[in-house]
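Fig. S4 source data, part A: sequence.
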Amino acid sequence: MNTSTPVAVITGASRGIGAALVPVYRALGYGVVAVARTIADSTDPDVLTVGADIGAPGAGDRIVAAALHRFGRIDTVVNNAGIFVAKPFTEYTDADYDAVLGVNVRGFFELTRAAMPTLLHGGRGHVVTISTTLVEHANSVLPSVLASLSKGGVTAATRSLAIEYAGRGVRANAVALGVIDTPMHAPETHEALAALHPVGRLGEISDVVDAVRYLETAPFVTGEILHVDGGQSAGH
């Protein structure tokens, strides 16, 4: 791959939404740096896999260094990795807090901060972050303060980044999700979770992929929080 080919870094890329985004970016003509705590090597020479805990100090610098060593550039960062723990507020433990905030907030901060100089250098950078509609529309049947605390922070940060860098060629957007059918949710919970959405079904990974693809190919869109939530954000 020559250095004129755009490159996307995708976290949480070993399964679910992240794994589905890898071939999407390849189809768009991107090289991909696929990041997860544990991830197998790829047979595609234009996909670099990096094993990393994105919540660990220094992880962002290490991922960016690996990307630049292999491809020479970074054009997009997809902050997809996340942890969701639903519990009554007083049942959350310090370990829950450290785990959720470590990945959802520290991970976002680590990688986005490390990648920003390279995104600016290219003059057409993009940061896409996966968030949740629970940030704006809490649900009494799904207590999830840590999700709101962490994803609310990165949603607000997305808007802030969009404005800070709007005149310098870097866009920032987020996709706010309802409940998506991923390995995170056991099959026996699907019926109850589907009922949380006005459309009466779980979201599919393809719904999320389509939203990220749109944002990637929409150069006039920045600061957008795109809801992919089966109508949750409109009401219930």
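Fig. S4 source data, part B ends here. Residues 79 and 108 are 6 Å apart (CA to CA).
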